[in-house]
Design a protein that fits this description.
It is a single chain. The protein is mainly beta. It has one domain. The protein is about 5% helix and about 60% strand. It has one helix and ten strands; from the N terminus they run βαβββββββββ. The strands form two sheets. It has an eight-stranded antiparallel sheet. Strand 5 and strand 6 form a beta hairpin. The longest helix is centred in the N-terminal third of the chain and has 4 residues. The protein is globular and about 30 Å long. About 25% of the residues are buried.
Length: about 110
């Protein structure tokens, strides 16, 4: 499997730490698979609930598919927003959402 990063847009208020707001906007530049759901390219809102490190992540957008998957919330000092994917059988699978101060490591990938 080949790992690579897909750039994502920074969003809204960067002055609030990721752990405090529990939501972030991201832009998928390409279609990706999350769990069993294929998400088309576009703008999405990512929210998470639960007690770290075990959280539930919901990725949703108006008029597009949405999905909820379990994830691990991991403290990290990224200083940016990015997406980490794997390519399996020609399909991009979203594994990690990197936020300014945390990583959301998604479960449910293949």
């Amino acid at each position: 499997m080949k790992r690579f990063f897909v750039s994502a847009l920074l969003l809204a208020s960067l002055s609030i730490p990721a752990f405090a707001k529990n939501s972030q906007s991201i832009t998928l530049t390409d279609s990706v698979k999350v769990g069993s759901t294929q998400l088309p390219a576009g703008n999405y809102k990512v929210t998470w609930t639960g007690t770290a490190p075990n959280v539930q992540v919901t990725i949703e957008s108006k008029g597009k598919a949405s999905v909820t998957v379990p994830a691990k919330l991991v403290d990290a000092k990224n200083g940016h927003v990015a997406l980490q994917t794997d390519t399996v059988g020609g399909v991009q699978i979203l594994n990690t959402i990197q936020l300014d101060n945390a990583n959301l490591v998604l479960s449910g990938g293949e």
